[in-house]
Structures
1.
Amino acid sequence: MCSKADDMRVKFFQYDELRFYGFALSLGVKNLLRNRFRLGPKKTIGKITQPINSYTRFPEYYYMNKIIADRISSSVPRRVTRVLDIGSPKCFGLYLAYHFDIEIHLTDIDPPSVEEAEVLWNAIKPAREGKQFFPFRMSGHQITLKRNLTSSIRCP
């Protein structure tokens, strides 16, 4: 039987907020310890004081994590699960690569966002399980993919 405290915790933290917040906070602290102020003082301190920029990210992280974890558990053994993350906050992609044996490609139209994710990944890389890749850069109206496959996005 659940106590009232358990009931309150279930209602208050329904999207595993503490798990995702804890990961983002530890990412910020490890970044400071390993990379010092490579991202600049404002960003480095911001990764600790506000590791996830909006509460609305928690339901997004929760449901995407659930879907991806279900996919991984139902996939064929020895088959790598691949994720292409286009333009979302990089913290979740780092979370996935850290916790799952996956191959994830992070992209963004803003190259400094991808470069920042690379710096953060280097702060946690020694203890990772998944594989993190940063080979894709979106520039202008084109996304260049691996193996010379190109998908063009045309703007009106």
2.
Amino acid sequence: MKRVEKQRLITIIITTALIGFVGYIIYSWWFASQRILKININGIEFGFRRDIREALKVEIENSSEIKKALWNPNLKKLTLVFVNSSDNILVKIQFFEITYKLAVAYQLKNRLMNISGEAIESYENLKGDESNVLIAVIPPYFTNHTRVWFKDWVVYIEGKDSKDLDLATIRFLLTVLNSTEFKS
């Protein structure tokens, strides 16, 4: 009789452990499959159209320099620049997202920032300075890369298609906003 009870107890323990393990795997899979579309900064939620985890995979060069440039106390103006193309609507969407989120972020830090947009002839030889950082949004019409990089006080945001341009813009904003708190 004792042997039967011992086997039954072992069977119950193994079954409980197996059910717990399977439950954990299912929960982990479900959580990993959920898109993360929001970040929280100082209690304010910022929403995005694309999954933040995907955006974090976008290549970014000189991220610390980008943060320093955009939070530099001498910075007075941000100029978003673009070259006219058939992708202007994509650029305008990115401009809106960048302008809105950075304006809110600067207000949270009690900083007034002049943010404007400007059409340019070419992305070649762009130069900003510590008081006027340029943000060049380069749509698929002009590039086959997806990345964010910084040179001569200019942040370049490139996307090889509309989705990747969105992801590169989000990657840039996550870097500047220095966000680590994500919500699904």
